[in-house]
Amino acid sequence: MATRAHRYLPVLLVLSLLFPVATQAASGSESFQKGVAAYRADRLEEALAHFEAARDAGLDKPSLYHNLGTAYYRLGRYPEARRAFQRLLDDPGSAALAHYNLGLVARKLNEPETAREHFRAALRSADNPKIQRLAADQLPERETTRADRSPFSGLVSLGGGYSDNVTLQPDDGPITSGQSDTFLEALAAGTYQLQGDPDHGLQLKASALILDYADRNTFDQTYLRAGLEWDRSSGPWALDLAAYGDWITLGGDPFERVVTGEVDALRAVTATQDLRLRYRLSLVDGANRFEHLSGTRQRAGAEWRYDSEAYGLETGYELEYNDRDDLPDASVSPIRHLGYLETRWKLARYWEVDLAGSYRFSRYQDPHRTPAGEVTREDTRIRGEVGLSRQLPWKLWANLEYQYTRNDSNIDFADPNYEYEANVYAIRVERFF
């Protein structure tokens, strides 16, 4: 009868075999594909020979070392399996699964304490609930309590950049300067597990973003957020209920206070695909000269996501309904339709490329009064983004990003803010913990 460890290892690692990726060398790619085919046919010796040929041809992808380790393990060549899995420990996206597999290898080599250390590391570092559960199954129950996992996770990001049209772009509508400037940016975000675990528990979340322009100080922005999230998993569905408050300043003065309630449902369709449904209700309190923005904002959306080791794709739609106080001669209560597409490629071991695009149509519910008469405002916004990321030592990431935005309006003659273009270039250094 197969052991639990033997059953689980192919289940996890075969995912990388089902989604092979293009490699830098044509010969390595060809050998890798032949190895995939041989593995699927359970011809392990032949598969291993092809994977080794791909490695010798210069292929250097995490998926190759996953597959090498799996083939070595199933053939009983445990020291070689260990060396293959150890190659993945420096890759953030692969480290948790690598620790789990190294634990299985250590057990085969009769190294129980080393195995426990790897299972503990997998449990602490895994974001994937499947890996967390598998690692927990390999440890005594007393070791899988909340005390064995860090209750805190977060992100710190520092960066700067240049905009050729400094623009405040809250959800309520753009305010543009028509002027260029450089900026500095700092972001900190954290989550603390108050009760239970990420699948069944209560979390405290907080974040802060500071945007400081060199000359256009009236566009300096601060975003503060704090709230609670309750998570629950049942079968293929994961349900999140959240409530949080935002405090936003503009040019050092209060801009908006927002209280939001959110319902988020996620369903795993396959091992690499999921469907997300989301609804948010926000109560907005506009400050000072922005009191007309006070009111409610509702959003409902659906998103489909595919995520494999080397490639990711997200696409979705969101409907937004606003009911604001409005101005005497202008509506700030649009109904909006947003469609978006985001994709990610892992080019090499430490490099990633991200591309994103979105289209938003807004129709305001009451007519605007203009010199030409009453006109119902309609806007279209197109946005495109491209990013390049590089993994650095000490769990750091460096990011280069370019963003293009164009907003068109049928009443641009009434206010120059309604129609604009902006190009933003940014560089950031991030650390997750």
TrEMBL record:
Signal peptide: 1-25
A Pfam short name: TPR_16
Entry keywords, A to Z: Repeat, Signal, TPR repeat
InterPro entries referenced in this protein's UniProt entry, alphabetically: CellSynth/LPSAsmb/PSIAsmb, TPR-like_helical_dom_sf, TPR_rpt
PROSITE patterns for this protein: TPR (PS50005), TPR_REGION (PS50293)
SMART domains: TPR
TPR repeat intervals: 62-95
Protein name: Tetratricopeptide repeat-containing protein
Top-level taxonomy: Bacteria, Pseudomonadati, Pseudomonadota, Gammaproteobacteria, Thiohalorhabdales
